[in-house]
Amino acid sequence: MNPLVKLAERAREVGQVRVYKKSVERVLSALLKSGDFWEVVDMSDLPVPAASAIVKVLIEEGLAFIDDTEDIRLTQKGMDLVRELGIEPYVDYACGACEGRGIPFYADIEFYREFLQITKDRPKAIRDYDQGSVTPETTVARVLFMDSRGDLRNKDIIVLGAEDDLTGLAVALSRKPRSVLVIDIDKRLIDFDNAIFRELGLDNARAMVWDLRNPFPPEMLGKFDVFVSDPPETLPAFRAFIGRGIATLREEGGVGYFGLTLRDSSVFRWREFQASLTTEFGVAITDIVQDFNDYITWDYHPETRAAEIAPVKRNPKGIWYRSAWYRIEALPGFKRWNEAISDDVFYLDEEGSTT
Amino acid sequence: MNPLVKLAERAREVGQVRVYKKSVERVLSALLKSGDFWEVVDMSDLPVPAASAIVKVLIEEGLAFIDDTEDIRLTQKGMDLVRELGIEPYVDYACGACEGRGIPFYADIEFYREFLQITKDRPKAIRDYDQGSVTPETTVARVLFMDSRGDLRNKDIIVLGAEDDLTGLAVALSRKPRSVLVIDIDKRLIDFDNAIFRELGLDNARAMVWDLRNPFPPEMLGKFDVFVSDPPETLPAFRAFIGRGIATLREEGGVGYFGLTLRDSSVFRWREFQASLTTEFGVAITDIVQDFNDYITWDYHPETRAAEIAPVKRNPKGIWYRSAWYRIEALPGFKRWNEAISDDVFYLDEEGSTT
């Protein structure tokens, strides 16, 4: 039997996570490039508990060790194994100009500058609501992406549960939509947005506090051309954010945007999301751009389950948490889902760890 | 009723195609940017028969006309309509450096140069097999994309029915896979590849003629880590290329790459493909990068159904046919499909037109 299969089996036992041979291979390939655990998570595109379990098993089997700077390094036995299996160091050809997004944030540099200026006193990400802000370059690229797909100008747009990124603010600031409604559970963000809307005279934009676990009232359903969201990756949260986002769409041809990460959910979970989108909800996926969304490491990182289960205590040095940018299109017969959601496993399950 | 809904209904009747309000909106937005029909198809991301039916209906309703240079232009009535509805010109923020792919072809410039040099006498795309070559920049970017996802080095790779793009040749030329098998129905391409493999001493690569309508023999099934393909967009061809590609994968964690276009199939069809991938075939979709693959307009364009049904006779001026680049990952329990396929509607159906 291939030794990676055995290592994957052991990691499944140790971490109670879904990993397979390829997951172990990706961790080894990442370890040939960096000894930093958070960079390894980033390069291997695995949930933190999965990457952590694999590293622990590599150490247990004498294939890796942690040096006194908390770098994870392969032992001679580990090096022999990667050589024998032909595993090579991770390589990255992401475009330096657009940071791999395909759409450079500086394509509208005035807009980028205004967004930076307006948001310099933005509220900090807090743990209560699984917040984590993307970089301003990400937020601006999101808006330009929407514009280049015909989903911005003179559209009625709802941004739901993603305002830690100030995406709704950026959408409104572009001054291109017909109307913008921002809803979020965090009153700090709603107040911040509304103050800026007033200050800049953006009369077509408003923000209001809403807990997405609750169903929308009828007057919110079927009213928008485009929704934007950034859900936690549990199945209940996916329904609450994306199912409810789809329910706000006015008609077929309506469009949804959201981030989904492989850092808090596995490719196994992704398949479930995708099957649900294309069969139950009746939408088509038109774009999945990996590593589009770069997240600034949240201040509360040391308190997260991720930090707790990591094989090292050293904090992340730079950006390590990224998500893919999805665009979906609602087709005739699409489903408007709007049930209540219980609190259980809303933010956290066996694959998630960054809450 | 919104006038676009009525126009969409009429286009459905005229063209016997699946279009909706949004499709009409996209054509109008494109017409504000260009009068060239093929550029309008490109910008509106619609199948040729759909874009053509919409343009014909716009003309019929006095909203557009064809001028004596064969440019499609909006009439005053058409301009009034777009103003009333708030439709604005198509915008494009694609990165100039990587051509919007996220991976720039020049990231390995020596490889790009060698590929250009080696392929300068490549066989031309012919109509018999629905061929159309992508640009060399596209082919090289495909290989770099695979490398950056850990799907190239020391992998056993099969490239099936995509050799008009010389993707298999490029994969072998990278000298990074363990083995490369190229199969294609076109003997000219197979001979071209094998001659170069011999000339360059690429002993781990070989090419052979195969008609993908036929099932693979058992010795081809479950033998590869990665497959690459570029199927025609009919449902039978999708099964023959992608279903059979998945069947060649050795194990869970195996990876597939292929192009899928919205020029020969609608977003409605895409949803069917995606539902089939994630439910029936048991794979997850990890990437969909729109407009990754740029196709050089084929010499036989004037003989295609696309040219026949277009509202103008003028030929395309530049690149207008693009496809998205898909990456999929086979999960535990994935299905190996390997049935025989009949000749009916293999290359062409109501949405396809470029064969």
Automatic annotation (TrEMBL), chains A, B:
- Kindly state which reaction or reactions the protein catalyses: 2 S-adenosyl 3-(methylsulfanyl)propylamine + spermidine = N(4)-bis(aminopropyl)spermidine + 2 S-methyl-5'-thioadenosine + 2 H(+)
Give any single GO term for biological process: polyamine biosynthetic process
What residue stretches are annotated with the N(4)-bis(aminopropyl)spermidine synthase C-terminal domain? 111-354
Q: Which Gene3D superfamilies match?
A: Vaccinia Virus protein VP39, Winged helix-like DNA-binding domain superfamily/Winged helix DNA-binding domain
Q: Quote the Pfam families the UniProt record gives.
A: BpsA_C (PF01861)
Cite the CDD domains for this sequence: AdoMet_MTases
Name the GO cellular-component terms: cytoplasm
Keywords assigned: Cytoplasm, Polyamine biosynthesis, Transferase
Pathway annotation: Amine and polyamine biosynthesis
What is this enzyme's EC?
Answer: 2.5.1.128
- Compartments where found: Cytoplasm
Q: Which PANTHER family match?
A: RRNA N6-ADENOSINE-METHYLTRANSFERASE METTL5 (PTHR23290:SF0)
Q: What does this protein do?
A: Involved in the biosynthesis of branched-chain polyamines, which support the growth of thermophiles under high-temperature conditions. Catalyzes the sequential condensation of spermidine with the aminopropyl groups of decarboxylated S-adenosylmethionines to produce N(4)-bis(aminopropyl)spermidine via N(4)-aminopropylspermidine.
Into which family does the record put it?
Belongs to the branched-chain polyamine synthase family.
Q: What is this protein called?
A: N(4)-bis(aminopropyl)spermidine synthase
**What is the scientific name of the source organism?**
Thermocrinis albus (strain DSM 14484 / JCM 11386 / HI 11/12)
Classification from the root reads:
Bacteria, Pseudomonadati, Aquificota, Aquificia, Aquificales
Q: Which gene encodes it?
A: bpsA
